[in-house]
Amino acid sequence: MKPDAIPDFAQRRVALDPRRSFIVQAPAGSGKTELLIQRYLKLLSAVDHAEEIVAVTFTRKAASEMRERVLQALQDAQSGKVAESPHEALTLELAAAALARDSEAGWLLADNPARLRIQTIDALCAGLTRQMPVLSRFGAQPESVEDALPLYREAAQATLALIDDDADVAGDVGRLLEHLDNNVSRIEGLIAGMLAQRDQWLRLIHLSGHKREIFEAALQHARRTALQRLHDALPAGIEAELPAVANYMFGNLGQSPFVDDENGWEFLAGAFLLKDEIAWREKLKKKEGFPAGKPGQSWKERALALFGQLDASTDFCEALAAMRALPPERYSDSQWQALGAILHLLPYAVAQLKLVFQSRRQVDFTEVAQSALQALGTEDEPTDLTLALDYRIRHLLIDEFQDTSISQYELAARLTAGWTADDGRTVFAVGDPMQSIYRFREAEVGLFLRARAEGIGDLSLHPVALMSNFRSQAGIVEWVNRAFAQIMPAKENMVSGAVPYTPSVATRDALPGNAVAVHPLFGDDGGEEARQVAELVAAVHRDDAAARVAILVRTRGQLQHIVPQLRVAGLRFRAIDIEPLGQRPVVLDLLALTRALAHPGDRTAWLAVLRAPWCGLTLTDLHVLAADGDITLWDALHDEARLAQLSDDGQRRVLRVRAVLAPGLAQRARKPLREQVAGAWYALGGPACVQQETDLEDAEAFF
User: Fold this and answer.
1) How many CA atoms within 13 Å lie on the side-chain side of 128?
2) Is the pTM of this model over 0.85?
3) Are the C-beta atoms of 52 and 392 separated by less than 8 Å?
4) Domain range holding 565?
5) What is the pLDDT of residues 457-481, one digit of tens each?
6) Which of 21, 186, 303, 560 could hold 427 in an S-S bridge, CB 3.0 to 4.6 Å?
7) Is residue 221 in a domain?
8) In a domain, 393, yes or no
9) CA-to-CA distance for 579 and 249, rounded, in angstroms?
10) What is the spatial distance between Cα 422 and Cα 483, in angstroms, rounded to a whole number?
């Protein structure tokens, strides 16, 4: 592929300027990682020390991949590899320049890869806290946990337990209980949820001073913002018709004439839109303000025609629907009392959370970032560490910037405080705000939009938007462009985090046939969906037996229908951490057999063995055998009086199983457990009881 075949080749070259700072919007498949590596290599050729460049991302896997690709590029340049594409040629060119600088400065990067400061943002924060253990208030480094919900709940419970020792806390908890119908678990959940987002509100609680007017001003600002969004989305040409229809409807409902304010639009939204849906009403009756009769019919037709015009504007429909969820202008006295109680309790909850962190020697990622901020001090009062880092770090690269949380954004601002556009220090942030739907670790996509518009700290970032898609064929890219342009918001909103879709340009030719096919299913029929999925996979394999098919699902729960259908169709598949071996029926039966042979007193295991397909006792017969809890079930199988109470079929089944298992139990601890269990399973007829061939493979894997 020639450079002129890459639509954004010029923008990519601009983004490599080591004197300027950039924020790059890089959609999926746009070669974002390659650009990051090229930028890193370019900077290596321009710094005095390799450690002056710090690249951070959000996962160990991403950091490891980036480090490996940088080292591989240096190795390829060293070996004289011939490039196969323009972007690879550029990477090798930059790597060669970096190697020359490496040789000149004596870095020996090939032998000392640790000099490449490519790490996760959590590792960066942890490193800062280790350097200033007292200021960061961390001391010895605790374990960072991905799921801190148990810690939040423990802190919430400890906060509520303070009612016995603190009268103020008891009063606050009492007011919350009154407000929430004495639901203690709900209060606990609310406190835990707030602790997970404490970096967003902790500073504001102290600034607000718990003043009611400050909080109510925020409510009014939210209402004004929603109204402005509605005005911005209002389609042209309906300025007269919409109020006319609204006033007719309001009059019939006994309401005052329509007023263009938050309250007027809020009522209008409830009348025009379906309840709990973002869709216009299709039927208008008397209860909606359109009585029967000729005048009412005429107005009804005008209203439906108006809805037809408005239906073309998804933005307006969404903005109108948002008016239904507007907060009140002011808090009622009871609401303010409840909010005041929350504001008073939350600092206690944060204190309890810190105690939980100390006792468990575990912290969440927010705590790591907050402690790193403490270690850096403030812009007005920087610590020695900040001053040292200001000297050491000259270039900061941030990957997946759309996943940045408030604490991490503040960290980037603190690390780059005092940097200016002409002092040779740069920031290079890369991300895709369109992927922010994942909300990774409480990420705020509005921060990406804010950085693009305002920069980070005093440092302006030049925006670059990549559009090339190197991953998918043209047919898929074109379909995605059409679909997501309609799905995502039409306008950007920094406050709400609304991000419009940015179309991509395919660099791969379209393949024959339809790139995308939709198979609609109406209703919640997981079984029918699974059957169709299995048939589609089978159809692909009929055309090409070597074809590989991927099945993506929203949640693991959807697989409970799909996996069995794939088995029924005889389709082999690979599912990592999707269907654990220990949860498959044949393995559960084998596990019960193993436990029973290892310990004759394990009643649960013996009941499972006697109920399993190779024995299949009825529940009635099982009840007879298990009635006496003073003896083991193995002994019960030898109690002739008890066996006589079983059904004739049950007696035959028990005698067979007893005869098969007796030799194995007699040789317990004399033979390897695997050999003992496998022998018993085969003797019981286990292989003949499986339903599918893959069950035999599961059994072999278990053995």
Assistant:
1) 32
2) no
3) yes
4) 526-579
5) 889 999 999 999 999 999 999 999 9
6) 21
7) no
8) yes
9) 56
10) 43
